Model the fold of this input.
Amino acid sequence: AFEMGISPGNLYYHYHSKEQIVADLFAEFRREIETTLATPDKRLPNAEDCWLYLHLVFEAIWKYRFIYRDVNDLVARYHVVEVQFRRILAHKIRVAEQILGGLVKGGQMHAEPAEITTLAQNIVLVASYWMSFEFARDPKAVQDDRTLARGAFHVIALAAPYLEPRERELFDRLAKRYLD
Done:
Protein backbone atom coordinates (compact mmCIF):
# COMPACT_ATOMS: atom_id res chain seq x y z
CA ALA A 1 0.00 0.00 0.00
CA PHE A 2 2.82 2.37 0.90
CA GLU A 3 4.68 1.68 -2.37
CA MET A 4 1.51 2.34 -4.37
CA GLY A 5 0.60 5.46 -2.37
CA ILE A 6 -2.75 4.09 -1.22
CA SER A 7 -4.24 3.25 2.14
CA PRO A 8 -4.18 -0.34 3.44
CA GLY A 9 -7.99 -0.29 3.36
CA ASN A 10 -7.98 0.58 -0.33
CA LEU A 11 -5.49 -2.21 -1.00
CA TYR A 12 -7.71 -4.74 0.76
CA TYR A 13 -10.68 -3.48 -1.26
CA HIS A 14 -8.89 -4.79 -4.37
CA TYR A 15 -7.30 -7.79 -2.67
CA HIS A 16 -9.43 -9.72 -0.24
CA SER A 17 -6.56 -11.44 1.53
CA LYS A 18 -2.87 -11.07 2.21
CA GLU A 19 -2.33 -14.42 0.47
CA GLN A 20 -3.81 -13.04 -2.76
CA ILE A 21 -1.48 -10.02 -2.58
CA VAL A 22 1.54 -12.25 -2.00
CA ALA A 23 0.50 -14.65 -4.78
CA ASP A 24 0.08 -11.84 -7.33
CA LEU A 25 3.36 -10.15 -6.38
CA PHE A 26 5.18 -13.45 -6.54
CA ALA A 27 3.66 -14.32 -9.92
CA GLU A 28 4.84 -10.95 -11.27
CA PHE A 29 8.30 -11.59 -9.83
CA ARG A 30 8.47 -15.06 -11.42
CA ARG A 31 7.40 -13.73 -14.84
CA GLU A 32 10.05 -11.02 -14.67
CA ILE A 33 12.80 -13.47 -13.65
CA GLU A 34 11.91 -15.97 -16.34
CA THR A 35 11.78 -13.40 -19.13
CA THR A 36 14.85 -11.46 -17.98
CA LEU A 37 17.21 -14.33 -17.24
CA ALA A 38 18.05 -16.19 -20.39
CA THR A 39 21.09 -17.36 -22.30
CA PRO A 40 21.97 -16.10 -25.76
CA ASP A 41 20.24 -18.31 -28.30
CA LYS A 42 22.39 -17.69 -31.39
CA ARG A 43 25.87 -18.01 -29.87
CA LEU A 44 27.76 -19.55 -26.99
CA PRO A 45 27.58 -17.58 -23.73
CA ASN A 46 30.76 -15.72 -22.76
CA ALA A 47 32.22 -14.23 -19.59
CA GLU A 48 30.34 -10.97 -20.12
CA ASP A 49 27.08 -12.95 -20.18
CA CYS A 50 28.00 -14.22 -16.71
CA TRP A 51 28.39 -10.67 -15.52
CA LEU A 52 25.09 -9.65 -17.15
CA TYR A 53 23.31 -12.66 -15.65
CA LEU A 54 24.70 -11.82 -12.23
CA HIS A 55 23.78 -8.15 -12.59
CA LEU A 56 20.21 -9.01 -13.61
CA VAL A 57 19.83 -11.49 -10.75
CA PHE A 58 20.92 -8.94 -8.17
CA GLU A 59 18.81 -6.25 -9.80
CA ALA A 60 15.73 -8.48 -9.44
CA ILE A 61 16.70 -9.36 -5.87
CA TRP A 62 16.89 -5.66 -5.04
CA LYS A 63 13.59 -4.88 -6.73
CA TYR A 64 11.88 -7.75 -4.90
CA ARG A 65 13.93 -7.52 -1.71
CA PHE A 66 10.81 -7.86 0.42
CA ILE A 67 10.60 -11.43 -0.91
CA TYR A 68 14.25 -12.29 -0.45
CA ARG A 69 14.41 -10.84 3.04
CA ASP A 70 11.88 -13.38 4.35
CA VAL A 71 11.71 -15.97 1.60
CA ASN A 72 11.76 -18.97 3.96
CA ASP A 73 8.84 -17.56 5.91
CA LEU A 74 6.88 -16.89 2.71
CA VAL A 75 7.64 -20.40 1.41
CA ALA A 76 6.46 -21.91 4.69
CA ARG A 77 3.25 -19.83 4.83
CA TYR A 78 2.06 -19.85 1.24
CA HIS A 79 1.95 -22.96 -0.93
CA VAL A 80 1.81 -20.90 -4.12
CA VAL A 81 5.06 -19.18 -3.12
CA GLU A 82 6.65 -22.53 -2.30
CA VAL A 83 5.83 -23.88 -5.76
CA GLN A 84 6.79 -20.72 -7.64
CA PHE A 85 10.01 -20.11 -5.72
CA ARG A 86 11.10 -23.66 -6.41
CA ARG A 87 10.51 -22.96 -10.14
CA ILE A 88 12.42 -19.68 -9.92
CA LEU A 89 15.39 -21.40 -8.28
CA ALA A 90 15.31 -24.16 -10.90
CA HIS A 91 15.22 -21.54 -13.67
CA LYS A 92 18.15 -19.61 -12.19
CA ILE A 93 20.16 -22.82 -11.83
CA ARG A 94 19.32 -23.92 -15.38
CA VAL A 95 20.41 -20.56 -16.85
CA ALA A 96 23.61 -20.54 -14.75
CA GLU A 97 24.42 -24.08 -15.94
CA GLN A 98 23.83 -23.07 -19.55
CA ILE A 99 26.08 -20.04 -19.24
CA LEU A 100 28.82 -21.97 -17.43
CA GLY A 101 28.54 -24.84 -19.93
CA GLY A 102 28.86 -22.32 -22.76
CA LEU A 103 32.02 -20.95 -21.19
CA VAL A 104 33.47 -24.47 -21.08
CA LYS A 105 32.50 -25.15 -24.72
CA GLY A 106 34.01 -21.82 -25.73
CA GLY A 107 37.29 -22.60 -23.99
CA GLN A 108 36.89 -19.76 -21.49
CA MET A 109 36.53 -22.02 -18.48
CA HIS A 110 37.63 -25.48 -17.34
CA ALA A 111 35.10 -27.46 -15.33
CA GLU A 112 33.65 -30.94 -15.34
CA PRO A 113 29.87 -31.36 -15.71
CA ALA A 114 29.49 -32.15 -11.99
CA GLU A 115 31.48 -29.01 -11.12
CA ILE A 116 29.23 -26.92 -13.36
CA THR A 117 26.15 -28.30 -11.61
CA THR A 118 27.60 -27.57 -8.18
CA LEU A 119 28.89 -24.14 -9.18
CA ALA A 120 25.52 -23.15 -10.67
CA GLN A 121 23.74 -24.23 -7.49
CA ASN A 122 26.24 -22.34 -5.31
CA ILE A 123 25.88 -19.20 -7.41
CA VAL A 124 22.10 -19.31 -7.04
CA LEU A 125 22.38 -20.13 -3.34
CA VAL A 126 24.67 -17.21 -2.54
CA ALA A 127 22.73 -14.77 -4.70
CA SER A 128 19.31 -15.86 -3.40
CA TYR A 129 20.21 -15.75 0.27
CA TRP A 130 22.71 -12.90 0.29
CA MET A 131 20.27 -10.31 1.69
CA SER A 132 19.26 -12.65 4.53
CA PHE A 133 22.91 -13.34 5.28
CA GLU A 134 23.76 -9.64 5.40
CA PHE A 135 20.74 -8.94 7.60
CA ALA A 136 21.68 -11.74 10.01
CA ARG A 137 25.25 -10.42 10.20
CA ASP A 138 24.08 -6.92 11.16
CA PRO A 139 20.32 -6.36 11.49
CA LYS A 140 20.79 -2.62 12.05
CA ALA A 141 22.91 -2.01 8.95
CA VAL A 142 21.36 -0.29 5.98
CA GLN A 143 20.93 -2.60 3.01
CA ASP A 144 21.65 -0.78 -0.21
CA ASP A 145 23.46 -1.17 -3.51
CA ARG A 146 26.73 -1.80 -1.65
CA THR A 147 25.10 -4.79 0.02
CA LEU A 148 24.29 -6.22 -3.40
CA ALA A 149 27.75 -5.36 -4.72
CA ARG A 150 29.31 -7.44 -1.94
CA GLY A 151 27.00 -10.30 -2.88
CA ALA A 152 27.98 -10.00 -6.54
CA PHE A 153 31.64 -10.03 -5.53
CA HIS A 154 31.17 -13.28 -3.60
CA VAL A 155 29.37 -14.90 -6.51
CA ILE A 156 32.14 -13.84 -8.89
CA ALA A 157 34.65 -15.32 -6.48
CA LEU A 158 32.93 -18.70 -6.79
CA ALA A 159 33.46 -18.90 -10.54
CA ALA A 160 36.86 -17.21 -10.77
CA PRO A 161 39.07 -20.28 -10.06
CA TYR A 162 37.57 -22.15 -13.03
CA LEU A 163 38.24 -19.41 -15.57
CA GLU A 164 40.97 -19.19 -18.15
CA PRO A 165 43.48 -16.36 -17.51
CA ARG A 166 41.88 -13.78 -19.84
CA GLU A 167 38.39 -14.35 -18.42
CA ARG A 168 39.80 -14.45 -14.88
CA GLU A 169 41.34 -11.03 -15.48
CA LEU A 170 37.96 -9.70 -16.63
CA PHE A 171 36.24 -11.16 -13.57
CA ASP A 172 38.92 -9.73 -11.29
CA ARG A 173 38.36 -6.26 -12.79
CA LEU A 174 34.58 -6.63 -12.38
CA ALA A 175 34.99 -7.89 -8.82
CA LYS A 176 37.16 -4.90 -7.96
CA ARG A 177 34.49 -2.55 -9.33
CA TYR A 178 31.93 -4.19 -7.06
CA LEU A 179 34.11 -3.55 -4.02
CA ASP A 180 35.09 0.05 -4.86
